[in-house]
Amino acid sequence: MAARAQRGAKLRRAGSSEHAVIKKTSVDVGFLSVVILLLVFGLIMVFSASYPSANAKYGNGLYFIQKQAMWAVLGVGAMIFTMKFDYRLYKKFALPIAMVTIALLILVLFSTPIKGSRRWLGFGSFTIQPSEAAKIAVIIYFAASLSVTKDKIREFKYLVRYWAMLLVVLGLLILEPHFSVCIIIGFVAVIMLLVAGARLKHFAIASVAAIPALIAVAMKEQYRMDRLTTFFDPFADRQGDGWQIIQSLFAIGSGGLFGLGFGNSRQKYMYVSEPQNDFIFAIVCEELGIVGAVVVIALFGILIWRGIKIAMNAPDTFGSLLVTGIVSLVGIQTFLNIAVVTKMIPTTGISLPFFSAGGSSLVFLMAAMGMVLNVSKFKKQVVDLR
């Protein structure tokens, strides 16, 4: 804190002899290293977790890992592009990005439903989820707008504007429906608003209306009520709604300290449904034990820590808020996924970043990592002109 205060004093004293400039340096190697480790670790676990189900469904045990590897390559390409693309330009295009995303969220409502939901836009064999784009678009728009609004966000009338924009996005997501992404975006938006200076008491006022609305949405669909009932007693319907979480707990419990060994999971053999997706952390626990689970959690912890440091050292408010939003997104999504798998909260479809199989989600995630790395390249320094 003292060092930061001294730097601030230097900037305030900068006059004819000193000048604050933004210099471009190398990317944060620590952050980049953890991203690569998580990506590789995730690919290894998708291969292990998906082999039995891929072999049973498609007659090819490599079906899922081949697709995930292809998306990983595209994701790395996206990360390299955004890592080299000056993040400050996103601020200029924040509104168009938000409008295009909203248009996609409207367009997807007219798509063919899959398993009762309209979440995918298809272009031949290529499909994307606009909801994944919405996560990043909201972060960019909020970061751009809040960097201009600054202290005005402490006034309730300005805060309401952000809630209105957020309600449009969340409303479209509920219509898909994609309730889990609504939760994630909602948490990320709250964190960004608070970091930007919004007052807690205003959120307390908003919660009076928000909490009843959330309850109403949860109770509207029977399957959501079933998930709540199952959460309290999954064994009451062990062959039905309780099956997935029970098998997940069996997988975690059987892993012990060091696990059954890589590739030796028993629950992935058609017990845990689609183990390469939302419940892949259970397979990690079963095969690699508590030690493996702690390593995964520690890697996410390091990623978040390095991200916070990048946000704190960002040369401008927009860069700081952009990184804050992206790091919050990874942290919240990781926590909620692990909470679901370990039965801390009711079951909902939240993927584990870098690990869960999914094409567009991985590409957008890697693109976001590139944005953070781009911000890390810029540093504000005080230069003596004498």
From TrEMBL:
The chain crosses the membrane at residues 29-51, 63-81, 93-113, 133-150, 162-194, 200-219, 240-259, 279-305, 317-340, 352-376. It catalyses: [GlcNAc-(1->4)-Mur2Ac(oyl-L-Ala-gamma-D-Glu-L-Lys-D-Ala-D-Ala)](n)-di-trans,octa-cis-undecaprenyl diphosphate + beta-D-GlcNAc-(1->4)-Mur2Ac(oyl-L-Ala-gamma-D-Glu-L-Lys-D-Ala-D-Ala)-di-trans,octa-cis-undecaprenyl diphosphate = [GlcNAc-(1->4)-Mur2Ac(oyl-L-Ala-gamma-D-Glu-L-Lys-D-Ala-D-Ala)](n+1)-di-trans,octa-cis-undecaprenyl diphosphate + di-trans,octa-cis-undecaprenyl diphosphate + H(+). Keywords: Cell cycle, Cell division, Cell membrane, Cell shape, Cell wall biogenesis/degradation, Glycosyltransferase, Membrane, Peptidoglycan synthesis, Transferase, Transmembrane, Transmembrane helix. Belongs to the SEDS family. FtsW subfamily. Peptidoglycan polymerase that is essential for cell division. It comes from the Bacteria. Pfam families: FTSW_RODA_SPOVE. It is found in: Cell membrane. GO terms for biological process: cell division; cell wall organization; peptidoglycan biosynthetic process; regulation of cell shape. Its EC number is 2.4.99.28. InterPro entries: FtsW, FtsW/RodA. GO terms for cellular component: cell division site; plasma membrane. One of its GO terms (molecular function) is lipid-linked peptidoglycan transporter activity. Pathway: Cell wall biogenesis; peptidoglycan biosynthesis. Its main location: membrane. It is a multi-pass membrane protein. The lineage of its organism: Bacteria, Bacillati, Bacillota, Clostridia, Eubacteriales. NCBIfam families: ftsW (TIGR02614). The gene is ftsW. This is Probable peptidoglycan glycosyltransferase FtsW.
